[in-house]
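Lab channel / #folding
Pinned by the channel admin:
"Please post every new chain as: sequence first, then the structure tokens as a reply. Keep commentary short and put observations after the output so the thread stays searchable."

First post following the new format, from NK:
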Amino acid sequence: MSYPLLRISENNSHVEVRKGRGAQRWEDMEEIFNGPATKDQEWSGGEGEKLSARRCKWPNDNPCNDISIAYSVTGLSGLDVGKPRLRVFPVQR
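Reply from TO:
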């Protein structure tokens, strides 16, 4: 069993988190969160699901254009049975 976990590493003005199974496109995944997020806020998926997220750091960013590249957390690659795997957003410095 594998359960993906996504935790944000800094405050962001806008975050979108979606979940799905298999090789789904971003547009086809189910939205589970859309709004501002604070550091250490987290989302988890079910067994075998994947989580994808994109975010804006500043309030004046356009979430449709200036958002970071979405990336996936899959429940299939290299997970120990029954143990969650942590992914964090990349931090721009």
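NK: Residues 66-79 have pLDDT under 50 and may be disordered.
TO: also worth noting, Strands lie at 4-7, 12-20, 30-37, 42-44, 50-56, 71-73, 85-88.
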